């Protein structure tokens, strides 16, 4: 009887310990989630504080070339993404924890050609590109920079080896490439790549 009670007491304590550990993990997750949201709110504010002057006419622009690396706003309506893309080293983990990062060795937005490559975390408390795999050909992707809105249409989606850097190579047409880890919500072994082609350039709203 004593042995049975001892086992029951042990199991109760073990159960309480598991609950405490679970609450601790949940608390850590929520804390990190709040931190990430705070980073993006600050980045949005920094972006909104930028001042750009565009000519009054026209409403659409045939020739636009961005010449400096700077904060950009990425909007993907289908998957409810509205994030600020940062400037810096895409391999900087602390930077990636705050939001998407523009590859330093990829092109700047330009109506004549070039491949703008952006990387971001997927899943966990970041969730920047979690649902990137839900995009379909023709879906709109907006990239706001210097008061312009580059409007891209999604072309294709692929899963590639993490060492396949050809996906961020420059292109002879104006392209946007989004990169994240695959599979979702686990340690990524591959890369999910979304490629989009420029459709038009208008004023950023």
If you had to describe this structure to a student in words, what would you say it looks like?
By secondary structure, this protein is of the alpha+beta class. 25% of the residues lie in helices and 30% in strands. It contains two helices and eight strands, in the order αββαββββββ. It has helices at residues 2-48, 93-96; strands spanning 72-76, 81-87, 101-102, 114-119, 140-145, 148-160, 174-182, 190-203. An eight-stranded mixed β-barrel has the order 1-2-3-4-7-8-6-5. The longest helix has 47 residues, at 2-48. The radius of gyration is 22 Å and the shape is globular. The relative contact order is 0.15. The model is unreliable at 23-31 (pLDDT under 50).
**SSE succession:** HEEHEEEEEE
Q: Count the E strands.
A: 8
Number of helical regions: 2
Return the structural class: alpha+beta
């Amino acid at each position: 009887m004593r042995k049975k009670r001892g086992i029951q007491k042990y199991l109760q304590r073990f159960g309480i310990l598991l609950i405490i550990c679970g609450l601790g993990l949940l608390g850590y997750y929520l804390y990190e989630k709040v931190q990430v949201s705070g980073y993006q709110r600050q980045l949005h504010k920094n972006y909104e504080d930028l001042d750009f002057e565009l000519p009054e006419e026209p409403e659409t622009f045939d020739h636009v070339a961005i010449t400096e690396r700077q904060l950009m706003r990425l909007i993907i309506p289908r998957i409810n993404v509205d994030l600020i893309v940062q400037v810096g080293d895409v391999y900087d983990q602390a930077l990636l924890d705050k939001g998407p990062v523009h590859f330093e060795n990829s092109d700047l937005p330009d109506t004549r050609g070039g491949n703008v490559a952006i990387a971001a975390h997927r899943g966990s408390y970041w969730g920047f590109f979690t649902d990137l795999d839900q995009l379909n050909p023709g879906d709109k992707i907006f990239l706001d920079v210097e008061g312009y809105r580059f409007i891209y249409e999604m072309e294709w989606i692929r899963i590639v080896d993490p060492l396949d850097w050809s996906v961020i190579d420059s292109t002879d047409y104006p392209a946007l490439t989004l990169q994240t880890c695959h599979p979702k919500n686990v340690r990524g072994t591959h890369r999910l790549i979304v490629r989009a082609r420029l459709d038009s350039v208008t004023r950023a709203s």
